[in-house]
Inverse folding.
């Protein structure tokens, strides 16, 4: 292709797309490791066999069995459930349904999940930020002061990458200040690891609440790309107007329905118990490593920790085939790496690699961390 043609393609593209930095997913960042602890996936692939063979037919837009089983699991009505290609599609559908490009804004509170801003910028909607406070709680006065022109607020709880739950009183405060003004989307991608903290019971009270869910984490189906948006029927009906006509392929719907059957839910809960046990082990071991300065409490399938010379630590493990997630560029997370909870053997590899590395001083014990009460 000639330079002239290349330039013409660039010139035809929307300016915001030309200038966009795409979301740096774990797979996009790459690496040649054999211990993958950078994407918050479950370490062992679940086994499923396809039962549906109607591949010659288009699938249902919203497969009834998947919808009904997820509604029963989440404790909501079927008309309050939308299934999509991962929770990422749910994030984008909300922006497309509620935000006018070039006019409206979304608001989110970094450090948090990067797809909120990427989805908004791709569509041409302003991404406005109100940084979380030093203890990662929400800065409620600053959020309220920034709401002019905001149609959609994203709050991740438990939050990625910090691992902390947002105080329910703070979530309620955001919902109250946005009544009649904006949709509030609470991202519960990791809620299976702390099910008592879900806000799905608030849907009747707050018609402007949306809850994002996924099968990628505790259900161990990141490769399936299946997520859910929960909301009141009026909100779900609006999202149905902008979703693709066939968002879930027949195999995806087939496996999702199996994962949501009673035996699938039982396996998921066993998996959560195993991950929680491994997480506690990892946190205790990290606190014995000289290069670890602080380990933060987590309600998820990963642990965030602050390291002495974190870039050198990251590269040292990378060179040994252990791939972690560097969070240094996130606001307030200087020196922080995120470690997915893998198998005990994988986590032992991490500890074995960290133990010889030097530290600047004695590591802080997580129980004495000033952040613990907020997490």
């Amino acid at each position: 292709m000639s330079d002239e043609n290349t330039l013409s393609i660039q010139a035809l593209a929307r300016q915001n797309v030309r200038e966009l930095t795409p979301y740096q997913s774990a797979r996009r960042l790459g690496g040649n490791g054999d211990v993958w602890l950078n994407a918050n996936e479950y370490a062992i692939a679940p086994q499923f066999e396809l039962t549906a063979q109607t591949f010659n037919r288009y699938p249902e837009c919203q497969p009834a069995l998947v919808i009904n089983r997820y509604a029963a699991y989440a404790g909501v009505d079927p008309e309050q459930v939308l299934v999509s290609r991962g929770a990422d599609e749910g994030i984008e559908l909300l922006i497309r349904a509620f935000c006018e490009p070039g006019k409206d804004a979304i608001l989110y509170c970094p450090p948090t999940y990067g797809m909120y801003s990427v989805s908004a910028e791709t569509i041409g909607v302003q991404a406005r930020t109100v940084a979380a406070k030093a203890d990662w709680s929400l800065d409620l006065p600053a959020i309220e002061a920034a709401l002019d022109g905001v149609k959609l607020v994203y709050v991740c709880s438990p939050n990625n990458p910090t691992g902390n739950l947002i105080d329910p009183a703070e979530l309620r405060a955001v919902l109250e200040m946005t009544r009649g003004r904006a949709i509030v989307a609470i991202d519960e991608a990791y809620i299976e690891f702390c099910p008592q903290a879900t806000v799905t019971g608030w849907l009747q009270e707050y018609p402007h609440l949306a809850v994002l869910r996924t099968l990628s984490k505790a259900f161990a189906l990141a490769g399936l790309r299946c997520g859910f948006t929960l909301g009141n029927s009026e909100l779900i009906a609006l999202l149905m107007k902008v979703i693709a006509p066939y968002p879930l392929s027949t195999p995806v719907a087939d496996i999702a329905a199996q994962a949501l059957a009673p035996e699938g839910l039982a396996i998921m809960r066993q998996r959560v118990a195993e991950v929680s046990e491994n997480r506690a082990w990892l946190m205790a071991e990290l606190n014995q490593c000289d290069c670890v300065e602080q380990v933060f409490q987590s309600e998820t399938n990963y642990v965030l920790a602050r390291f002495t010379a974190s870039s050198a630590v990251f590269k040292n493990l990378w060179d040994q085939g252990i791939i972690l997630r560097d969070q240094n560029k996130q606001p307030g997370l200087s020196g922080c790496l995120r470690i997915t909870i893998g198998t005990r053997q994988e986590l032992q590899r991490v500890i074995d690699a960290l133990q010889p590395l030097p530290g600047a001083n004695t590591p802080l014990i997580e129980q004495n961390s000033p952040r613990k009460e907020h997490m």
